[in-house]
Amino acid sequence: MKIATYNVNGVNGRLPVLLRWLEETTPDVVCLQELKAPQEKFPEQAIKDAGYNAIWHGQKSWNGVAILARNVEIKELTRGLPGDEEDLHSRYIEAVVNNVIIGCLYLPNGNPAPGPKLDYKMAWLERLKIHAAQLLERDLPVVLAGDFNVIPTEHDVYKPERWVEDALFRPEVRESFNSLVGQGWTDAIRKLYPTEKIYTFWDYFRNAYGRDAGLRIDHFLLSPKLSNRLLAAGVDREVRGWEKTSDHGPVWIELSDQ
Question: Are the CB atoms for 66 and 48 separated by under 8 Å?
């Protein structure tokens, strides 16, 4: 079972890139972030024609998350991260696919920091930790996948000294993320590649992709039931070099059958 996560940075504007990548790599499940499309504008038919069922949680101009599954049923469980009824951002959707619980998330950026946006990010992380702990208590196969907007360590960023005050790399953000992982989750990329330089995002500016001046902010967290099933993981880095592409590259893992 191949699961991918991809911050598509506008699902309609980048649709040719998304469809090409789906055709070339055929993941079984895909978590998308930053749809930047209201619910009624999601390109459901194009996704269906590519062989994928879909559920999505859209929002006009901003945010938006979706789960795609190739030729299998998606059973939606949760739409929106629990814990704050006043939070209307489309940042979380959860479903069961092939007996695996998939939590697709787009964690707040938090910049400029300090300030209200960082406060919202920290509060969102706290809600995520509560929900994640409840998922672990069920002792089921769970994957939390998406754009976490967190650079976990200095090893995950080009020139870390330039990011010290950024909300993706501030100490309190990394500490909160580490406490989430410490609940019992496995960072899939680092389990297989503990020391390699691996990035998932390259800015559009200053030839960041050409210089490989990137960040690792798109993550897979696996519950104990899934950690031992991890076979492979990687980043489809070349997609970042395609024309009119997202500033993120798709990230993927492969799991063995039960």
Answer: no
Output the pLDDT for position 258: 77
> Do 233 and 189 contact (CB within 8 A), yes or no?
yes
Domain range for 98 is 2-255
pLDDT tens for residues 9-46?
999 999 999 999 999 999 999 999 999 999 999 999 99
Count other C-beta atoms under 10 Å from residue 53's C-beta. 16
Query: Can you read off the two tokens belonging to residue 130?
Result: 């509560």
Q: Which two tokens stand for residue 213?
A: 């001046």
Nearest to 35 by CA among 17, 11, 52, 14: 11
The tally of domains found in the chain comes to 1
Q: Which residue has the tokens 């691996």?
A: 198
∠ CA(78), CA(7), CA(144), 5° rounding? Answer: 40
Report d(CA 15, CA 18) in Å as an integer.
5
Q: What is the pTM of this model?
A: 0.98
CA nearest to 57, candidates 71, 70, 49, 74:
74
Tokens of 20: 């090409």
| Dihedral over Cα of 5, 11, 14, 19: its sign | positive
The secondary structure of residue 200, as a DSSP letter, is S
Tokens of 23: 């055709």
Query: pLDDT per residue over 99-129, tens digit each?
Result: 999 999 999 999 999 999 999 999 999 999 9
State the CATH number of the domain containing residue 110.
3.60.10.10
Q: Return the exposure string of 168-180: e unless at least 16 CB atoms fall within 10 Å of the residue's CB, then b.
A: bbbeebbebbeeb
What are the catalytic residues?
Answer: 106, 147
Q: 3-state class of 20 per DSSP?
A: helix
